[in-house]
Design goal:
Layout: H1 10-17, E1 25-26, E2 34-35, E3 44-55, E4 62-73, E5 77-81, H2 88-95, E6 103-108, E7 111-112, H3 118-128, E8 129-133, H4 144-154, H5 161-170, H6 186-198, E9 204-208, H7 216-233, E10 237-240, H8 244-247, E11 252-257, E12 260-266, H9 270-290
Parallel strand pairs: 5-10, 5-11, 8-9, 9-10
Antiparallel strand pairs: 1-2, 3-4, 3-6, 6-7, 11-12
Organism: Embleya hyalina
GO molecular function: ATP binding; ATP hydrolysis activity; transmembrane transporter activity
Region (Disordered): 1-38
Amino acid sequence: MFGRGGRGTRRTKRDAEYPPQHGSPVSTGGGSPMPVGPPVPADCAVRLEAVAKAYGRGSSAVHALRGIDLVIPRATFTAVMGPSGSGKSTFLHCAAGLDRPDAGRVLLGADDLTAMKENQLTRLRRTRLGFVFQAFNLLPSLTVEKNVLLPLRLAGQRPERGRAAEVLAMVGLDRHTRRRPAQLSGGQQQRVAIARALVTRPDVLFADEPTGALDTTTAAEVLALLRRAVDDTGATVVMVTHDPVAASYADRVVFLAEGNLAGELYRPTPEAIAARMVDLSQGNTRQRQAA
């Protein structure tokens, strides 16, 4: 049910439809700069335009993101990787409307998150975004079913038990609806968290190190679930991870280094991802030594 062989060939088609995007402008010799690469696809789930974020001020400021331009198409699985301090978590927080960039824009579909007030962002996160974190963040006093239905309640929507049953069946836990989190394994709890993230049919599911607390076998099951959510239901998944094997489940891996985009890989393999990460880490070391 959860084997990696079930990923199928749809990724190849998706790669053909959405070649790598390049945000750096190229001078046309006098006129306005012309973007490199194909135009932004019409079915864009998330778009970052010149997004910058720094913490602190003056010479001690830490520039977490330095003018990121990136398009994430709908119904795709994107992994975000980079060395420690590369800006991965800040990228996710800004893309998901959890933090505001200092400059640039973040768009969810056609909606500009950076122009919204905090109460508008809260409503949007409750209805159009799903989140899965390394810590499962389940409420221990609630049953599995009630944990899954919680986003609907918070959004002021009618809690549909049929919808809870549907997403729990998707993650293989439809027989555990009345159990509480303490009665489940770590892998089962993360699968409940995925069901909870999918229950509102979000535009985008953001996952931050979703397998960081799991053993290898259980991690593979969770990653296969995310893969199936894209392939079978048309979900859009954006996952931050440090694990090349986890990232290989994605359609595309986006690399960050020192707050900048540092390349992309399509149809990634663990070996290719690991090699790119070694190059980035060595590059960071050389920069620090030169400074």
